[in-house]
Structure formats: structure tokens, C-alpha cells
From TrEMBL:
Keywords: Oxidoreductase. Belongs to the short-chain dehydrogenases/reductases (SDR) family. Its EC number is 1.1.1.107. The gene is pldh-t. Pfam families: adh_short. InterPro entries: NAD(P)-bd_dom_sf, Sc_DH/Rdtase_CS, SDR_fam. One of its GO terms (molecular function) is pyridoxal 4-dehydrogenase activity. This is Pyridoxal 4-dehydrogenase. It is an enzyme of class 1 (oxidoreductase). It comes from Clostridium oryzae.
Length: 151
């Protein structure tokens, strides 16, 4: 993912990132909702980012897609609460994946913040399982973060 100011961004890159991070979640939720409603309860957990709450210069596609995902999470929570379906956001913070390789070189990324915990993908599982196991009357429209700093 290129880190460029808006005026230098390629439109196709903008569309690609929004398709993956926002539209992919929308299509998945839309397909799952009828089944969750029929079952009488359920959980939707979106994978957010601190950049969706704060944004970052030279990161418009990613930040905007994750901000949109956070808003979709909140809207779905409002629409689905009467069906006992909770919708929450999980923010893993920096995770040691191929996607994060470029960020590791960036002195302004979460990988470079003193005291931040860089997680392995499996480190995120416990929070996801916790959220999925909450009672039907549990939280909805909330953001849960594994980061060691404010979102």
C-alpha cells in the first residue's frame, strides 16, 4: 500500500483499498445478516484500525476505509440490536504480517512506537473469541483494542 498525499494517489489504489476494507465487510455482513436473524442472535466482529479513528497524512485510502468500517459497525449495531445481534470492532494494533512489512520501516508507524506490542496473528484470537462468546445482552457498537495506547 503506497503512502502518498491525496493529490498523488492513484484512483485505482483508492478503489482497491476501499473494496477490500469497507466493501468486503459490507458484502460479508449483508450475506450473513439473514442467517443471523433466523438464528435469533449472533455476533459480527469487524477488524478495525486505530487509523480509522485518527487518520494519518499519506494514508488516506486505508484510514478512510477503516473509518468507514467503524461507521458501518455502528450502523449495523443499531439496525441489528433488536434481533440480538451485536456488532463490535476489534482493533488488533500492529500485527507481524506481510501487510505490515512496509510499516516496520516507517518511523511514524505503530511498529515504531515505544512500548507498543507487535502481535503475531494468533495473539488476536483471544479477544475475537471473547467478543464472540459474550452474552446476547452484551456490548454492541463498541471498539475493543489490543493496542497499548489511545486509539
Amino acid at each position: 500500500m503506497e503512502k502518498l498525499p491525496v493529490d498523488k494517489l492513484d484512483i485505482e489504489e483508492w478503489k482497491r483499498v476501499l473494496d477490500v476494507n469497507l466493501n468486503g465487510a459490507f458484502y460479508t455482513a449483508k450475506a450473513a445478516i439473514p442467517y443471523l436473524k433466523r438464528s435469533g442472535s449472533g455476533k459480527i466482529i469487524t477488524i478495525g484500525s486505530g487509523m480509522g479513528h485518527k487518520g494519518r497524512a499519506d494514508g488516506a485510502p486505508y484510514s478512510c476505509s477503516k473509518a468507514g468500517l467503524w461507521m458501518l459497525t455502528r450502523i449495523l449495531a443499531q439496525e441489528l440490536s433488536e434481533f440480538k445481534i451485536s456488532v463490535n470492532e476489534l482493533i488488533p494494533g500492529p500485527v507481524n504480517t506481510d501487510m505490515g512489512n512496509d510499516s516496520k520501516k516507517d518511523k511514524n508507524s505503530a511498529f515504531s512506537i515505544n512500548g507498543e506490542w507487535v502481535k503475531a496473528p494468533e495473539d488476536v484470537i483471544d479477544l475475537a473469541v471473547f467478543l464472540a462468546g459474550l452474552p446476547d445482552t452484551g456490548p454492541t457498537a463498541q471498539s475493543f483494542s489490543l493496542m497499548r495506547r489511545d486509539i
